[in-house]
Prior knowledge:
Layout: E1 2-6, H1 13-24, E2 27-29, H2 33-39, H3 46-66, E3 70-73, H4 76-87, H5 92-100, E4 105-109, H6 127-140, E5 145-148, H7 153-171
Parallel strand pairs: 1-3, 1-4, 2-3, 4-5
Amino acid sequence: xxxxxxxxxxxxxxxxxxxxxxxxxxxxxxxxxxxxxxxxxxxxxxxxxxxxxxxxxxxxxxxxxxxxxxxxxxxxxxxxxxxxxxxxxxxxxxxxxxxxxxxxxxxxxxxxxxxxxxxxxxxxxxxxxxxxxxxxxxxxxxxxxxxxxxxxxxxxxxxxxxxxxxxxxxxx
Length: 172
């Protein structure tokens, strides 16, 4: 089973991904953009997004080959939206690979949490707009997704509620 946590920045994705991994003993695929951007003090260009995409995909594939249950703290959908919003383009392989990926469900985090400053974050005022872009993209491609909102334990409990049926169906 592969679960992807997605959504705009500062919407609790990393916290939720870690909690899901702990709750269900899933292998965690971390968000690699943070590591890569830290190396360049947050400076990036379009080519950097492609590098991040390749590394994120490689990590996701390596993990899914080693583990039966995987939780991804983001995936190529973030690169697609990042490229479209920031540069009005994206690499065709990002979308083709994303569409062919074996994801059981996406958990789309709402930006109802207070935005927290981080030198790598750049969208404090358009998170609702970005959320709608993620939502429309998932809907357009008929991707199985669930919206995760609320505070604290409520978010994790909603995620657990949506994941449990997939676990039951995988055991049959």
